[in-house]
## 1
Amino acid sequence: MKKFRKTIAQYILHTEQKWKALPEKRQRLFTKVFLAGYTLLTLCVFVQIWVNGANGKNIPIGGHISNIPTGIQPMNQSLKTTPINNIQK
């Protein structure tokens, strides 16, 4: 594990040295390109979520779980529910 950490630290140091060796204009250009790409990716994700929500597609919850052992009742089905009105009377 120490060897792995040392390798990672050397890689980070080498990359940082390469970054600092770049001219300032080039650093700013790379930063702007990265920010623009990140913003575009974020907008695409938001649009995709908005379109899926507008189409009325519901995300299935619980339908994909099939490894519950037989004979075990989920907690929410085994509890008896009583209306609040009956408790208050």
## 2
Amino acid sequence: MREALLWRMHDLGQQTLLLAKHGHILGARILLRSCIETLGVLIYLNQKTQSVLSSTLSFFEFDEITKQLLMGSKNGATSLAAVNILTVLGQAEKVHPGLASMHQHLSESAHPNYDGVLFGYSSTDPDKHETHFVNNWVEFFGMEQEPGSAFVFAVFEHEYNVVWPQHMTQLEKWLRANDAALGAQRVEP
């Protein structure tokens, strides 16, 4: 799963930067939102691994959660329900404050509401009672894109290159130490 998340983040990151470079800020914001969701899954997985190591989550519960993260869906494509992304982001927020609010802010652009339509594509002159339709994305949101992207990719790099390897090393030791007990607990279908 770790490698799949890396490939996904790489793909999303390249496309986010490409769109931003060419002034397509709406698309870049939507992709950055997806980057945050991908990062959230990695953080959530790291947290659940730590929960197994600290004995606050059973290995079998962890197994079910990883199945949901890897094979869950919201559209019924699989028999497993996906973990709700807001749950994931709520947990990620605990270790990286600002991620959930950043996701919420980017979501406003992604949806056809005030930010996504009226604010993004119009300007008004109240004195003349006129509305002009223009693309405001670079002007209103362009300055947020680079620092937001830098933050998200730096956190992903830390979670991927530092937190994950530490947890996996500890989990491998934990599994070796608890192999017999886990074997005795396993219930075969």
## 3
Amino acid sequence: MNHIKIIKYAIVISAILSLTSCADTLIGDEGELDEAVFLNYRTKTDLELPFENEWFIGAGGKTILQNHHFIPHRHQRYAMDIIQLVDGKSFKGDGTKNEDHYCFGKRLNAPGNGKIVALENNIEDNVPGVLNTDQQLGNYIIIDHLNGEFSYLVHFKQQSIRVSVGDTVVKGQEVGKAGNSGNSTGPHLHYHLQTTADIHDGMGLPTQFNSYYANDVFIERGTPVQNQVVRKD
């Protein structure tokens, strides 16, 4: 990807975030960042990006300037909101239908090996711009990586999840399709890693993925941050 395209993506990000993101944050308790040790946490699980082709990091990183999740809720402090862009836009037409959005219905994968410990698959997808604040996670899966790390993949398309509680999954296995369910203003993937399977508890963990490209630069191990275009190969 050339520098002109990268600059274009950076210019449009503020508009995109107003259209396609988690509305504020999900669920959790407020508090100061008194667990600063987690800023330098090294992910134990061998993780890869949980999607195919190029996606755009709408929110992600370790500062409030990069990541609107960072301050309000400690369990998703390092969460990412991820979409797809074509010519700097996340949707075609006027974006009023989920099907207008380029990531809607796209394949999502297990980012690492583990066991499915919780999921929801029956929540209707929102009309873009209309939130479901009663079922904030929407359709989701939680993967226990069996080492004190738990992956949350949130806002799946209704009835698209292909796994069941108790299933063992392997890195790269398809688990469902991107959607717009829950506390979401438009189709996207919310991903974060935390220390428990309880959305109301636990600490968010910085996430390092292995072997991917960010803005066409190969990253052996790193953390995607806002405004990057990322892909596995």
